[in-house]
Amino acid sequence: MTATPPITAILLAGSRPGADPLAVAMGVSIKPLAPVAGEAMINRPARALLAHRAVGQVIVLTQSSAPFAADPATAWMTDHPRIRFEASGAGIASSLIALLDRGDVPFPMLVTTADHVLLDGAMLDQFVAEAQGSDIAVAMVDRTTLLARYPQSRRTWLKFRDGWWSGANIFWFGSAKAQPVIALWQEVEQDRKKGWKILSAFGPVALVGALLRISTLRGGIARVGRRFNLTARLVAMAQAQACIDADKLSDVELIEQIIAQK
Question: Are 50 and 24 spatial neighbours (Cβ–Cβ below 8 Å)?
């Protein structure tokens, strides 16, 4: 029996052009250094990835490692034997494409974000188990799942026949077949909050199906896979907090409440 190769975890920790409102509010130079529950937000997802049995190396994708090395709260990351920093470009997708083009970043790859402060072993267990064997998988949370636990949380939702869904900032790229889809992501990532623009990039069937509510999200993702001749899956996360990231002060307050309850 062939052993499953270790997962390459990519932790997105770059900065968008201009000042980030949360970083400014927290008095830090870049958002991943913003304190949440007493420590830099990036520390929690970094530790969760390192602790997971399926993860090999962790690549931190950011404009510069200097702020992390200079901050006592995150300096440990720059010396860790399983963490390496790579320079990011103008966007997430273009940065991933640059890594893949080099050919020294092995599949499968799991991508998540520095502001996914609540990422934990249970989330990773479910996502990895359900994503294994696919070329692309994306984690989402259904609105009923989130609001049953955290009705005060405000998310961006995509509406389908099988419900309203919000992204959980965990992605799986299982093979080189994923590269054309990442290239498409590059074209639309500036419109990531505009669900119709993202859907339209996958073709008129996906767009019309969503608008008329004749398409389920799971079926739509599978159809995207068929278009690109790959296996694409939705991972519907069981944990409501999987889609709560630290994007604004109200998110940080909710995250700190959740951490305190643990």
Answer: no
Identify the pLDDT of residue 1: 38
Q: Which residues of 169-202 are buried (b: 16+ CB within 10 A; e: fewer)?
A: bbbbbbeebbbebbebbbebeeeeeebeebbbbb
229's tokens: 């001749």
Rg (CA), the chain: 18
Q: Please tell me the distance from the alpha carbon of residue 49 to that of residue 58, in angstroms, as a whole number.
A: 7
User: Are 48 and 170 a contacting pair, CB within 8 Å?
Assistant: no
**What does the alpha-carbon distance between residue 211 and residue 104 come to, in Å, rounded to a whole number?**
41
Nearest Cα to 57, choosing from 25, 101, 11?
11
Beta strands in the chain (DSSP E): 7-12, 35-36, 39-40, 55-62, 83-87, 109-113, 136-142, 158-160, 163-173, 232-236
| Tens digits of residue pLDDT in 167-222 | 899 999 999 998 888 877 766 665 555 555 555 555 555 555 555 555 788 888 88
Provide the percentage of residues in the chain whose pLDDT is more than 90.
63
- Tokens 């990351």: give the residue: 77
